[in-house]
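> forwarded from #structure-qc
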């Protein structure tokens, strides 16, 4: 009986640590997030369904990156100003990873930080700004994709003059045929 209880406890611990590796089921997030509040009628799929996005305006975007039905990262990019903050609230609060007071504090300070099992990152570009959320353990496995020019995947959001990219997985970068940047992601010069 003790051995059985020990195995059950170990199984629960393993399941809990595995669950912390992502932000939850993509379907749960899509059910909770109001796409019309984000200024669109439907999500657009890219990279074989690994990336979903909505664009409430020509310069603003909310992107979701998923693998195997699990939500891995959320990227919110917009011109500098109130739009990015508004979209960040609409995109991040429904998931329950961060409460409104913590999001307010991080946005006011202009820097990211830990939010439970998630990591919030803020990037200021020349013309745009971005708010990004991913599971703490995922950041090392994610890449930055330029949204306004550029055709490489990057490990640094500031490489090659990118003005606020979005987070994607390696599988999504492969599906989009984005080679690794030779400066920051170990790519080779052609």
């Amino acid at each position: 009986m003790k051995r059985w209880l020990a195995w059950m406890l170990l199984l629960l611990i393993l399941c809990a640590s595995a669950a912390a590796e992502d932000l939850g089921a993509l379907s749960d997030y899509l059910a909770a997030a109001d796409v019309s509040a984000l200024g669109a009628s439907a999500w657009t799929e890219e990279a074989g369904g690994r990336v979903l996005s909505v664009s409430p305006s020509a310069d603003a975007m909310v992107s979701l990156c998923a693998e195997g039905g699990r939500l891995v990262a959320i990227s919110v990019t917009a011109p500098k100003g109130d739009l990015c903050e508004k979209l960040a609230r609409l995109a991040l609060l429904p998931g329950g990873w961060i409460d409104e007071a913590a999001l307010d504090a991080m946005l006011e300070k202009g820097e990211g930080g830990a939010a439970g099992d998630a990591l919030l990152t803020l990037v200021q570009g020349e013309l745009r700004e971005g708010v990004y959320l991913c599971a703490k353990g995922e950041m090392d496995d994610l890449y930055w994709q330029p949204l306004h020019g550029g055709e490489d995947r990057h490990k640094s959001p500031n490489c090659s003059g990118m003005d606020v990219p979005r987070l994607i997985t390696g599988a999504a970068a492969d599906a989009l045929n984005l080679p690794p940047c030779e400066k920051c992601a170990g790519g080779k010069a052609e």
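QC bot note: The chain has one domain: 22-175. Residues 1-20 have pLDDT under 50 and may be disordered.
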